[in-house]
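Record type: ASSEMBLY
Status: queued
Input:
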Amino acid sequence: MKTKNLLLATMLIGALSVVSCGTKYVATEHVINNIDSLSSRYYVDYKPNVDYLKSHPLKKIEKDSLVAVILKSSPAMQKSETVSNQFGTFSPRPIVTKEDSFNLMCLCDSLIDYRPVDISWYYNTIDISDQYSLSYNLGFYGLKEGNMRPILNENFRADVINKKTGEKTQVELKELSYGQLNKTPLVYAFAFWVEFEEHRYLIHGMHDVRIYHDKLEKKKAFTDGCYMIR
Amino acid sequence: MKTKNLLLVTMLLGALYVVSCGTKHAATDYTQKLNFCAAGGTIDLNERYSLNYYLNLNFDSHKVTVKFKDAKVIDRQTNDTVNVEMENLKCALLSKSPIIYASVFEVSHIDQHYILHVLFDDRTIFNKKKVEFKATEKCYNVADLDPKRIEQYLGK
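Status: finished
Output:
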């Protein structure tokens, strides 16, 4: 049993480290998103305070007194005053210890059906040619009801970046198509094209909160595609 | 009326593209129905195994219904094939014209668990860099983390 717990803890820490080394995807909403969409097979995805994890003494939490386990280093979760699961509503507790990791998994499992995500931001950079890459940031809301809509504010944008000079040129996102495949775990897909220097680039992307734990990928993984169609 | 006809023609063209998709995504079904798409492909799961999948979808009323699904794992060394279940298959239609749809499903094979993403877009046939009709697809191995990698991240 002890070995199992230790293994679980090790796995969690491993997963946390995997997550913390990804710099591609940063969004505050994401913190809540991924707590929601965790299942026993997958790991929680948020910015961990690894030093805290290492230095904090182990603390036992009984399974029947499951509480919300929230990291201090996650600002989005600090905003929420209470978190509910099937055991009731709890105030956030800024703790994650090694032994808590098992409870954290259980908690997140129990939250999966209870707190679907409404907002999600997708940030990615993809090479469009040898010289240029495209950096884009898309936000969607209405995911809770399965009625996905883009958040068309100033953060919803795409920039072509000259890889040599770092020079940025904003381009317009054209003919955005999108569709939600699943609510929890959240999966959606989108397609759009941009025009740059007389070429048209078709961009594909799929967001799936579960894929960040791919054991073969060394960094955060994306399903994306770029096709020069003109 | 003219616009409607034009739309229909465009949709037909779109459907034809999907159906006539080249080498990798060999479509095997073609009907006169415009809201119908049959497509599949082969995705490498790892160095040894590939997944061959086939999906038969209906796009009536902007909702995607799965008419038929089939997947098998091919051992590239021995050419053995094993039928596998496409678990938790979800599809969404992003656009009817051009036809764009996405699918996500899971497959279990020899103690490993994979999530597969497929984004099908008939405009990819215009790709100038590669003459190939190809869906944006990716395979993720989400089985438990490899102990070696855990050690690596723990700094051992």
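Annotation: Confidence is low (pLDDT under 50) at residues 12-115 of chain A.
Annotation: The two ends of chain A are 60 Å apart (CA to CA).
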